[in-house]
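Q: Sequence in, structure out?
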Amino acid sequence: MKLRFSVYILLIVAVAIAVGFKSAGAQAQFDVSCSHLKKMYVYELRGQTKLNFVETSKGKEDFWRFTSAHTHQDVAITFDNNVLLEDRVYSPTESIPSIPFPNRDAAEQAARSMCPALLTESPLPPAKPPLPVKSPESIESPEFPLSCDAIASIEIFKQKDRIWRDDSGDGYYYLVVITFDENVGKRFMRFIESSPVQWLGEDADIPRKYVQIQANGTRLISDAPMYDGFSEERVILVRRTRTGAFGTIRALCHDKAPTVMHVEHAIGVETVPISVQ
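A: Exactly. Output:
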């Protein structure tokens, strides 16, 4: 048992040297263990390779407690005291962040040195999810008129790009979240149900009830209609750029424009002030 344990530790150290790990310093650290993880997988996208984690209940609970205790602090994510990632905690989260590596071999080697039985094939497709075969401007669908009075609030989220195959510019996309005022949601859902089915997807083979929003006589364009969200409470529109997102907000209701934007980071979400002018 002692010999097997020593070989295991030597392997961890060898991998740490090979991929550039370093020992954790004095900053707070969260030491990942195999009990925190259900599985690990490697995903490559636009020249970036990352080792991704799927957490167990214990992993989610422990990481939530850790990030809650160290919000707005610089921390280290470690394994056997070797640093996997150094970053800032922006808000409490259950999700252990993905770890960047120079290539797939390095990522898989690290995973096998950590919890070899948990390394599995990626559940994600090798390329980005499909986009509509038509340009958003060419989609002809019924338009739901939405006045400023019908809007309770508008929020904006800046999220890491998981939609486009090519680089979207700054590596992010934007969600404009429109929450309805009272009594608007039921009318909106009836409008959707009475609307024709649109065929979306790369092969135009994904049926979906899709409508567009009309604000003050202007049709609001989404940059990825297949990923828009419709419910009785709210509508979520996807915009590829900050300029497009701000334009959507101004067209909707300038008086209810958000004053902050929620920005996704490796560890948590940062709330930053904005001015939609």
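DSSP finds five helices and 17 strands in the chain.
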